[in-house]
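Suppose you are handed a protein chain with no further information: no name, no annotation, nothing but its sequence. What can you learn? This example shows the usual starting point.
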Amino acid sequence: MPKFFILLLVLFVPVMASAVPHEQCGDGKKECGACHTLSLPEANSILKGVGEVKVVKPAPISGLFELTLESKGQQGVAYLDFSKKHLIAGPIFDVTTKNIVGTKPQPAKPATVNPSTIPLTDSVLMGNPEGTKKLFVFTDPDCPFCAKLHRELVKLMYMGPDLAIYIKLFPLKMHPEAYDKARTILSGENPLYLLDQAFSGEKLPAPKGKEGAEAVDSTIKFAESIGVTATPTLILSDGRIMPGYKEAAEIKKLLTVSPQEQVK
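A reasonable first move is to predict its three-dimensional structure. Written in structure tokens, the prediction is:
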């Protein structure tokens, strides 16, 4: 899991704190903000690898800086203490009012990719090859949730006769046999049949030589370039990236719902 999304995860475990007046520093006459400073370049240096710091400002809580961070198009709020050693993911709540203190986090928007950049080659095709709507599915032949999703895709084919489903084989390193299975599937005469066998727990023949390796490697490289790290992951016809298992009815609804409605 990327470090920035560990922050986003903690956003849903709010830190309860009470607002306190700014204490005085130094000679007892200056407020803390006059003694403690944090520039944008310094903040980015401290949080290198977590996300890009877009905004730094004094927090409404004494002893903290408020940071707005961005990673892969998504933003989150976090707080850095004046010692610059401790990071707290927001939001922070006032225990008296139960309201958020400081900047309120914005609803997360789905990551997106230009669907025209997704290669149609090296795919297992389901549904209507001439379909005007496209769904891309990154799957692993040894992933149990992928097998469960595969059954839903069969249902989806009949629910959406104008839908072309492109299955991209993305074997995860945690499944040591998945890579060779993916190679066998993509190099076989009937890839969909072989994929069905894999998801049914049937043993697939070993790939010969280097067959299928280039196709699988190409998919892995592309998936990583757009931030796909887990299976199953769906990419809708408008480019929205949706990780995780979903039922056929939910996928059908997602294919007809706009990104704006999805955020709501």
